[in-house]
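Handout, section 3.2

Students often ask what a structure token actually looks like in practice. Rather than define it abstractly, here is a full record for Methylcobamide:CoM methyltransferase MtaA. The first block is the sequence as you would receive it.
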Amino acid sequence: MERNLRKNFLNALRGNPVDMTPALSVTQTGTVELMDLTGAAWPEAHSDPEKMATLALAGYEIAGLEAVRYPYCLTVLAETMGCNVRMGTKDIQPSVLSHPFSGGPEKLEVPEALLEKGRIPTVLKATEILAARTGGENGKEETPLIAGMEGPLTVFTHLAEVKNYLIWTIKKPDYVSAFMETCTEICIEYANAFFDCGADALSMPDGGIVGSRMMPPSVLENSVKPFYERLCKKVKGPIILHICGDAGDALGTLSECGFEAISIEEKVTLKAAKEAIDGRARLIGNVSPSRTLLFGTPDAVKAEAKQCLSDGVDILAPGCGIAPRTPLANIRALVEARNEWYGEKK
């Protein structure tokens, strides 16, 4: 049966019937093997739109994942807002080195011409390139295009540092509100630019603080949820929230914000996650990216992936970003497992 991967993916995000559960990654997909095979390597692929697009396509064309996901870091907005960023190496992602608003939100505002600053033009140009190459023309299969971006909590903690965020939630809640207000508006403008350039969905890794269990439920409910709700209402297309760590206790609140789907790590069981979400969002995950994909065998990947499918995951995916040294055979095993699982059901 001929399948339209884009249609199948969007149906899965909306909770509609699908041909097969999509098997893909909503988190970063750049690996050293794919870099070597394509000639598009980090750190250049973080700043060159053609290389960024070439490496992203390799996740679909070579690794077999049923979506194209890009870029490969969570520092684009931080750099745009004044953070110094170490661009990393071939197998180390970029990281934030400075926190220019660690003293507070004074002078923090959405920059004029935000979309023209930093690496944002690079990522948007890569979006246009990828949209043209995944559109199904000339007999090619339509492939979904998933853009990754930081969420407002991540931008906040990059600008001001995590320890300040945690202190301010107790001592200076007005600071927290001011940061979240501006960071959310920055994210909305950037997110909508992705859709204008042809992306099908956004993957927003955010809220690592939530998964670390350092955030009290009252802070999540009163200081984060309203801004997530605003973001979901103002962004033009579907958003996937990815939460690192053990976010089980927070999933009920997070699923009420308006995200089409929530991506979780293996630290949360799918059964517990499904109970917490209760049908308000689709569930994505959660094959271990380190224990299984990086250090395991294809057979181990298949066993864990099939268990995820049996547990009712809506989209089969790694539980977090794919490590750069992950073997290509293990990534391919994710899709192979899905195909075998459906064959075994017949």
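Discussion prompt for tutorial groups: The chain has one domain: 5-344. How would you have guessed this from the sequence alone?
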